[in-house]
Amino acid sequence: MKDEEFLRTKVPMTKAEVRAVSIDKLQLNGKSNLLDVGAGTGSVSIQAAVEFPDLQVTSIEKNPDAIDIMTKNINQFHTENISLIKTNAPEGIPDEDFDAIFVGGSGSNLKEIITDCLAHLKKGGALVLNFILIENAMTAYQVLMAENVNDLEMTQVDVSKWHALGKGHYFKHHNPSIVLSSTKG
User: Rounded distance, CA 87 to CA 8, Å?
Assistant: First the structure.
C-alpha cells in the first residue's frame, strides 16, 4: 500500500517499504490474530487487515491524536477486522494469546512491553519490533537474547526516493528503520 493512501497528521507512520518488511516478518499467512502495540496512524494494522481479510487485528494506542487519525484511516479503508483500544502498554494488552505481535511504539516501557508481548504470543508466533533509535533496538535485542526466542534477526531498512529538483533529480533519504524479528520458542 502506498503511503499517500493513508490520512496523515503529525503522528508518526511506518513507511511503505518498512511495512512490507515488517509484515513479511510477521508471517501472517494462515494466522487468525495480530496484536499491534503502539499502532500510531494504523498503517501496519490496516495493511495487514487488508492483505489478510480473515485476520483479526487488535491495535492498542495511548495517544489521542493517533487514536483520532487511526480511526479515520480504519473508516477510509473499511477495515472492520480491526479492534482499536485506547490504552497504555503493557498493562492494556488484552489477556489473550496472539499468533503474531508487532511493536511500532513503546514509549519508555520497552523491556516490560517485550516481556508482556512474549507472554501473550503463541509458541512459534512472530514478534516484530521497529525502531529508529539504535539504543532502543539494542535494548530490545538484549532483552530478546535472554528470552526463549528463535530466528532472532536485526535488519536495517534504508530507503531513498527519487525526486525532481529543478531540471534534475535526486534521492530524498528517509530515516533508516531497524526491524527486529523473532519467533517464540
Answer: 21
Residue whose cell numbers read 487511526? 70
The three-state DSSP-derived secondary structure of the chain is CCHHHCCCCCCCCCCHHHHHHHHHHCCCCCCCEEEEECCCCCHHHHHHHHHCCCCEEEEEECCHHHHHHHHHHHHHHCCCCEEEEECCCCCCCCCCCEEEEEECCCCCCHHHHHHHHHHCEEEEEEEEEEECCHHHHHHHHHHHHCCCEEEEEEEEECCEEEEEECCEEEEEECCCEEEEEEEEC
* Residue type present at position 21: V
The per-residue pLDDT for range 129-167, each reduced to its tens digit, is 999 999 999 999 999 999 989 999 999 999 999 999 999
CA 110 centroid distance within chain = 14
Q: Domain 25-148: which CATH class?
A: alpha beta
Domain boundaries, the chain: 25-148
What pLDDT digit, counting tens, does each position of 97-135 carry?
A: 999 999 997 767 899 999 999 999 999 999 999 999 999
